[in-house]
Design brief:
By secondary structure, the protein is of the alpha/beta class. Helices cover 48% and strands 15% of the residues. The strands form 3 sheets. Strands 1, 2, 5, 6, 7, 8, 11 and 12 form an 8-stranded mixed beta sheet that branches. Strand 3 and strand 4 form a beta hairpin. It is globular, with a radius of gyration of 25 Å. The two termini are 31 Å apart.
C-alpha cells in the first residue's frame, strides 16, 4: 500500500454520527454502509498517483479526482482518507478484499466503465468523457490505424484500459506491442518523446495538460469509441453509499459544480500550441534570466507569485522591454500612459519600472474586485480586468447575472465577456463596447504560461517530490497558495 493521508472536511459535522447513532438505537437495525461511514467519520478513497487523479502539489494534496472526493466527503459530513496504490488491478483487488485493514469506501483513479469491470464492481454515473490517443514519435510516419504501426514497438501500462482495448481491437495484423507493470503513462509518454519506443496510448485529459512538455510526441489517431470515467464501488445488496454518490453526481452536474471543477483543471489547456510552446521555452533561457530577480522582488512587494507576474509579462511583450503596440501601450508590462502615471512610472521602457508598475497595478485591480470571490477565480478576473479594464469586467459580470449565471465564477463570466462586442448587450452597459474576446484568450494564455513556469522553476527537491507523486504538476492551486 502506498501513501495515505486524510482531510477533515467539516469538523463541526461530528454531530452527524450522533444523529445516526440515535436513529440506529431507536430502530435497532444493522447500520448501512453509509451509516457506518458516518459513525466512523471516515470515507476511504483508493486511488493512484497521477496528474489527473491525486498527487502532492507542494505540501498539499490535489488532483481532479481528489477534489471531487473532497466535495463528496463534505457532502456526507465525514473525513476523507486517501490510500494510494500502485496499479489499476491492485485497486480493483483491494476494493473487493474483505480482509483489508479497514472497510474500503470506493476507488477513484480515472477508471473507465467496461462490461468486464462491471461484473466485478458497481460504478457511479460517469463524471467525464475522454478519448484514448495513440501517440507516436514525430520522426515516424503518422499512423492512422493499428495497421500503420510499423516503425517500432507499441508499449502500454499493464492492467490499464489501454491494454484491455488493444486485446479487443488487435486481431489479424497485430503490430508489435507489449505491456509493462513498471511503467506508467507519463513514463511511456516520455519514452515516445525520447524515441525509446515508437508508440503508446494516452488518455486525452492527461495529454491535454502535458503535451507541451513533449515536443517530439504527436497524436496519430483515437481509439473508438471513447471512454467514460466513474468511481467504482463494491457490488452487493447494500448500495447506500453508491446511491448517495449517484445523488451527489446528479446534483453537482445540475448546479454547475462539476463544470466548475472541469474549468479549474482543464479550462485553459488548449491555448498553447507546439510553435508557441517552443518559442516560450526558448525565451525562458534567453530573456527571463535578465528579469527573474525583478519579478521575484515585485512579487514579494505585492504578495503575488512572481511566476504569475512573469507569465503576464510574457503575454504582454514576450519579455521585451521596448515592446510597443499600435494603441500606444509600451514596455515589458505594456503600460498605458495613464497607468504609468498612476503607478509613478517615469520611463515605461525601463524593465524594472515596468515590472514594478505592472505588479502594483495588478495588485490594485485585484483589491478592487469583490473579495468574496473565491480563488482562483478572483485572480483570473483580475487578469481579465488588467487586460480589458475593471469597468468592462463589471459589465460582463452584470450580464452574467442577468443571463442566470454566477457573476463570481470565472467559468460563467468568460462565457459572457464576448457579448460586450454585441450591440444588443453593450448598449445597456455602463462602459459600452469592448473587445470581449480578448480578455478570455488573454487569461487562458497566462494560465498556460504560469503552469509551465511553475514546473520549470520548481526547486530541485520539489521537482523530485512532484515526480514521485505525479510525474508532472497539475492545474490546481491559486496563485496565492503557490506563493506561500
Amino acid at each position: 500500500m502506498g501513501r495515505s493521508g486524510s482531510l477533515r472536511s467539516r469538523p463541526a459535522l461530528a454531530l452527524t454520527s450522533v444523529v445516526v447513532m440515535a436513529a440506529l438505537l431507536i430502530g435497532c437495525e444493522k447500520p448501512t454502509q453509509l451509516q457506518q461511514l458516518q459513525l466512523q467519520q471516515k470515507l476511504l478513497m483508493l486511488t493512484r498517483n497521477s496528474p489527473t487523479t491525486y498527487y502532492i502539489d507542494r505540501d498539499d494534496p490535489s488532483g481532479f479526482e481528489y477534489e471531487l472526493a473532497k466535495l463528496f466527503a463534505e457532502d456526507i459530513g465525514v473525513e476523507l482518507e486517501v490510500h494510494v496504490l500502485g496499479s489499476t488491478p491492485e485497486l480493483f483487488q483491494t476494493l473487493n478484499r474483505p480482509a483489508y485493514e479497514q472497510p474500503v469506501s470506493f476507488a477513484a483513479a480515472g477508471l473507465s466503465i467496461t462490461p468486464e469491470r462491471q461484473r466485478k464492481v458497481a460504478f457511479s454515473p460517469p463524471y467525464m468523457n475522454i478519448n484514448l490517443h495513440l501517440v507516436y514519435n514525430r520522426n515516424h510516419p503518422k499512423p492512422n490505424s493499428f495497421k500503420d504501426l510499423t516503425e517500432g514497438e507499441l508499449v502500454v501500462e499493464k492492467g490499464s484500459i489501454h491494454e484491455e482495448r488493444i486485446l479487443k481491437l488487435l486481431t489479424e495484423e497485430e503490430p508489435q506491442w507489449s505491456s509493462s507493470s513498471d511503467l506508467e503513462a507519463m513514463d511511456l509518454l516520455n519514452m515516445v518523446n525520447e524515441g525509446e519506443i515508437a508508440y503508446t496510448i494516452v488518455d486525452s485529459n492527461l495529454w491535454a495538460t502535458h503535451y507541451i512538455y513533449f515536443s517530439n510526441a504527436r497524436i496519430g489517431f483515437d481509439l473508438q469509441p471513447g471512454e467514460q470515467l466513474a468511481w467504482a464501488f463494491t457490488r452487493g445488496k447494500d448500495s447506500s453509499l453508491r446511491d448517495k454518490a449517484n445523488d451527489f453526481f446528479i446534483r453537482i452536474e445540475q448546479d454547475g459544480t462539476l463544470a466548475q471543477l472541469h474549468e479549474r483543471f482543464y479550462g485553459h489547456v488548449d491555448q498553447l500550441n507546439y510553435v508557441g510552446a517552443k518559442i516560450f521555452v526558448r525565451q525562458l533561457d534567453n530573456r527571463l534570466p535578465k528579469y527573474r530577480d525583478t519579478f521575484i522582488a515585485a512579487g514579494e512587494d505585492n504578495q503575488i507569485d512572481w511566476k504569475l507576474l512573469a507569465a503576464i509579462g510574457y503575454q504582454e511583450s514576450h519579455w521585451r522591454p521596448t515592446a510597443r503596440s499600435p494603441t500606444g501601450v509600451r514596455g515589458l508590462m505594456m503600460l498605458t500612459q495613464p497607468t504609468a502615471k498612476e503607478m509613478k512610472v517615469d520611463n515605461r521602457l525601463d524593465p524594472v519600472q515596468s515590472i514594478n508598475g505592472g505588479a502594483g497595478y495588478f495588485a490594485k485591480i485585484k483589491a478592487r474586485i469583490p473579495q468574496r470571490i473565491a480563488e482562483p477565480d478572483l485572480t483570473w478576473m483580475a487578469l481579465a480586468a488588467y487586460n480589458v479594464g475593471l469597468g468592462h469586467l463589471e459589465d460582463a459580470r452584470v450580464i452574467t447575472q442577468k443571463r442566470g449565471g454566477n457573476p463570481d465564477r470565472w467559468m460563467d463570466v468568460k462565457e459572457n465577456l464576448p457579448l460586450l462586442t454585441k450591440k444588443k448587450w453593450y448598449q445597456n452597459t455602463r462602459y459600452g463596447y469592448a473587445r470581449g474576446y480578448e480578455p478570455v484568450v488573454y487569461v487562458q494564455n497566462i494560465r498556460r504560461y504560469y503552469d509551465v513556469l511553475r514546473w520549470l522553476e520548481a526547486p530541485q527537491g520539489e521537482v523530485e517530490q512532484l515526480a514521485q507523486a505525479a510525474h508532472q504538476p497539475g492545474i490546481t492551486d491559486s496563485p496565492e497558495t503557490m506563493a506561500q
